[in-house]
Design brief:
alpha/beta, Nucleotidyltransferase, domain 5, five-stranded mixed beta sheet, 4 helices, 5 strands, disordered C terminus
Length: 136
Amino acid sequence: MLKLPDLHKEFILHTDVSDVGIGACLLQQHEGVKHPVLYASKKLLGRERNYPVGKHEALAIVWTVQKLHRFVYGQHFVLETDHRPLQYLNSVHSKSPRSMRWSLALQAYHFTIRYIRGEDNFSADYLSRGCAADTE
Protein backbone atom coordinates (compact mmCIF):
# COMPACT_ATOMS: atom_id res chain seq x y z
CA MET A 1 0.00 0.00 0.00
CA LEU A 2 1.41 3.39 -0.99
CA LYS A 3 1.80 6.04 1.69
CA LEU A 4 2.02 9.77 1.20
CA PRO A 5 5.59 11.03 1.59
CA ASP A 6 6.50 12.78 4.83
CA LEU A 7 9.21 15.29 3.93
CA HIS A 8 10.36 15.36 7.56
CA LYS A 9 11.26 11.66 7.59
CA GLU A 10 14.26 9.97 5.99
CA PHE A 11 13.70 8.29 2.64
CA ILE A 12 14.95 4.81 1.75
CA LEU A 13 15.65 4.10 -1.89
CA HIS A 14 15.75 0.58 -3.37
CA THR A 15 17.20 0.10 -6.85
CA ASP A 16 17.75 -2.91 -9.05
CA VAL A 17 18.52 -3.64 -12.68
CA SER A 18 17.93 -6.60 -14.97
CA ASP A 19 18.84 -7.30 -18.59
CA VAL A 20 15.84 -5.26 -19.75
CA GLY A 21 15.28 -2.45 -17.28
CA ILE A 22 15.75 -0.51 -14.08
CA GLY A 23 13.38 -0.68 -11.14
CA ALA A 24 13.21 1.59 -8.11
CA CYS A 25 11.11 1.98 -5.02
CA LEU A 26 11.11 4.98 -2.68
CA LEU A 27 10.17 4.00 0.86
CA GLN A 28 9.73 5.50 4.30
CA GLN A 29 9.41 3.90 7.69
CA HIS A 30 6.09 4.31 9.45
CA GLU A 31 5.80 2.70 12.88
CA GLY A 32 8.83 0.50 12.19
CA VAL A 33 7.56 -0.81 8.83
CA LYS A 34 8.90 0.25 5.43
CA HIS A 35 6.08 1.50 3.20
CA PRO A 36 6.43 2.41 -0.49
CA VAL A 37 5.93 6.04 -1.41
CA LEU A 38 6.69 5.82 -5.12
CA TYR A 39 7.63 3.26 -7.78
CA ALA A 40 9.65 3.97 -10.93
CA SER A 41 11.02 1.90 -13.79
CA LYS A 42 12.78 2.41 -17.08
CA LYS A 43 13.51 0.23 -20.07
CA LEU A 44 17.24 -0.01 -20.84
CA LEU A 45 18.50 1.40 -24.12
CA GLY A 46 20.34 -0.97 -26.47
CA ARG A 47 23.76 0.41 -25.54
CA GLU A 48 22.95 0.22 -21.82
CA ARG A 49 22.18 -3.49 -22.10
CA ASN A 50 25.83 -4.09 -22.98
CA TYR A 51 27.14 -2.65 -19.70
CA PRO A 52 28.79 -5.08 -17.27
CA VAL A 53 26.89 -5.90 -14.04
CA GLY A 54 28.58 -3.25 -11.89
CA LYS A 55 27.90 -0.51 -14.42
CA HIS A 56 24.28 -1.70 -14.73
CA GLU A 57 23.81 -1.35 -10.98
CA ALA A 58 25.53 2.06 -10.91
CA LEU A 59 23.36 3.25 -13.80
CA ALA A 60 20.27 2.20 -11.83
CA ILE A 61 21.38 4.28 -8.85
CA VAL A 62 22.24 7.38 -10.87
CA TRP A 63 19.03 7.22 -12.92
CA THR A 64 16.89 6.68 -9.82
CA VAL A 65 18.47 9.44 -7.75
CA GLN A 66 18.10 11.90 -10.62
CA LYS A 67 14.52 10.77 -11.28
CA LEU A 68 13.57 11.22 -7.61
CA HIS A 69 15.55 14.43 -7.19
CA ARG A 70 12.57 16.37 -5.79
CA PHE A 71 12.28 13.92 -2.89
CA VAL A 72 15.92 13.29 -1.99
CA TYR A 73 17.81 16.50 -2.77
CA GLY A 74 18.88 18.49 0.27
CA GLN A 75 18.36 15.77 2.85
CA HIS A 76 20.07 12.55 3.85
CA PHE A 77 18.63 9.33 2.48
CA VAL A 78 19.59 5.66 2.56
CA LEU A 79 20.20 3.85 -0.70
CA GLU A 80 19.73 0.10 -0.32
CA THR A 81 21.03 -2.16 -3.06
CA ASP A 82 21.75 -5.85 -3.45
CA HIS A 83 25.10 -5.19 -5.18
CA ARG A 84 27.97 -4.85 -2.65
CA PRO A 85 30.66 -3.27 -4.90
CA LEU A 86 28.68 -0.05 -5.33
CA GLN A 87 30.41 1.52 -2.34
CA TYR A 88 32.83 3.12 -4.82
CA LEU A 89 30.16 5.54 -6.02
CA ASN A 90 30.81 7.69 -2.95
CA SER A 91 34.32 8.45 -4.21
CA VAL A 92 35.76 9.79 -7.44
CA HIS A 93 38.76 7.45 -7.63
CA SER A 94 37.59 5.56 -10.70
CA LYS A 95 39.53 5.76 -13.94
CA SER A 96 36.45 5.13 -16.09
CA PRO A 97 35.07 8.39 -17.55
CA ARG A 98 31.50 7.13 -17.21
CA SER A 99 31.99 6.16 -13.56
CA MET A 100 33.64 9.51 -12.90
CA ARG A 101 30.65 11.38 -14.42
CA TRP A 102 28.22 9.30 -12.38
CA SER A 103 30.18 9.90 -9.21
CA LEU A 104 30.23 13.63 -9.87
CA ALA A 105 26.48 13.63 -10.57
CA LEU A 106 25.85 12.03 -7.16
CA GLN A 107 28.06 14.44 -5.19
CA ALA A 108 25.17 16.89 -4.78
CA TYR A 109 23.27 14.27 -2.75
CA HIS A 110 23.83 13.21 0.85
CA PHE A 111 23.24 9.47 1.16
CA THR A 112 24.50 6.26 2.67
CA ILE A 113 24.73 3.09 0.58
CA ARG A 114 23.63 0.00 2.47
CA TYR A 115 23.78 -3.57 1.19
CA ILE A 116 20.60 -5.64 1.45
CA ARG A 117 19.96 -9.22 0.40
CA GLY A 118 18.36 -9.77 -2.99
CA GLU A 119 15.20 -11.21 -1.47
CA ASP A 120 14.74 -8.00 0.54
CA ASN A 121 14.88 -5.94 -2.66
CA PHE A 122 11.84 -7.61 -4.23
CA SER A 123 9.87 -4.53 -5.32
CA ALA A 124 12.72 -2.93 -7.28
CA ASP A 125 13.68 -6.36 -8.64
CA TYR A 126 10.14 -6.99 -9.87
CA LEU A 127 9.93 -3.59 -11.54
CA SER A 128 13.28 -4.05 -13.29
CA ARG A 129 12.24 -7.40 -14.75
CA GLY A 130 8.52 -7.28 -15.37
CA CYS A 131 7.38 -3.73 -15.73
CA ALA A 132 10.38 -2.03 -17.34
CA ALA A 133 9.22 -2.85 -20.85
CA ASP A 134 5.89 -1.14 -20.25
CA THR A 135 7.06 2.21 -18.87
CA GLU A 136 9.06 5.28 -19.77
